[in-house]
Predict the 3D structure of the following.
Amino acid sequence: MRYPETRPPAFTLTAGPVDAYPEVLRAMGTTVLYDYDPAFQAYYEAVARKAQKAMETDSPPVILQGEPVLGLEAAAASLIAKDDVVLNLASGVYGKGFGYWAARYAARVDEIEVAYDDCIDPEAVRAHLKAHPETKVVAVCHHDTPSGTLNDINAIGAVVAQAGALLIVDAVSSWGGMQTSPDACLAGIYVTGPNKCLGCPPGLTLAAVSDAAWAKMEANKDAPFASMLSFTDWKNAWKATEPFPFTPSVAEINGLGAALDRFLDEGPESVWARHALTAAATRDGVRAMGIDIWPAREEIASPTCTAVKMPDGIDAGPIIAEARARYGVSLSAGRGETLGKLIRIGHMGPTAQPMFAHVAVAALGGALAANGTKVEIGAGLAAVQARLDAEH
Ligand SMILES: *Cc1c(COP(=O)(O)O)cnc(C)c1O
């Protein structure tokens, strides 16, 4: 049996976008209210307050009306002033990419870069900031998705705060799938979105902003205004009594409200636990088949995405195509430097279900075997099952 490319796959186990929760899709299909209707303004405020609760932060996050790349670019544009020195931390494609935005706005961008299967050492950040006390802004990606690796943002945040700089965090693909919050890492701007672990379609940014970051943005003469990239334009838009600078994405807000209800009803601990177990079972299964994971160490492997290292001489592209065609399972490729070298299995929102580890391991193993790689599929599935039963 083959799954034609012209039809949707049976399973979307990608690293984002992910399939949306049914209640999110239903909410998005409800009435599109006029944005100045009092019912919508009250709903928007309620959604912002739920987001604040879910993000465990002091004030409602800013909701920007575009998927989180907009929020990351807006953070660079709004926070970094022309004479600022920025330290960019790069342990993967997204971390590296932020440095290019920073370079548009900063006087100088320094960088600490490590191999893309590794993570940033907070002590290296401390040493750099000691040698360069002029540094105003530090940027880090929490979970660099194209590598499936985590940085210790709480430790990095403490170092950055001690040096008196402001931290920009890209937590797009970690927040909602594991314990992480803007306050725990002392972030200046903490950017995430509902389109990964919260199980919404791409379309919005959620960003928590500290008082110090607001003060810096408000004093920044070069920060955008009357612009979709402006943080300050949207600062008070969450209040039902305040105007929107531009039209918000009404249907996306309806979906976000449903996703937050679901997250809060299920309970963050339970949501994090199913992400962690799905990832752990997947890693066990992959290794038991005789295949390595990409992250250099188990401790830095993400609970929201498992990056699987391709055996020597095997290109990931045909394996991904085979898993899609043979089993109807859609998996993610790497990006940039990791393209071809790894395959990513997402565990985000609706696909963070431990039984999906079986689907992923079976599809990956079968596709590798079909391409002539020797893999122990049975051993892989037994290892998945053992992990699920051990944590029962
Ligand atoms: C998904 C993601 C983003 C948002 O960008 P996309 O256009 O959806 O790729 C930003 N940062 C990280 C780390 C992500 O995983």
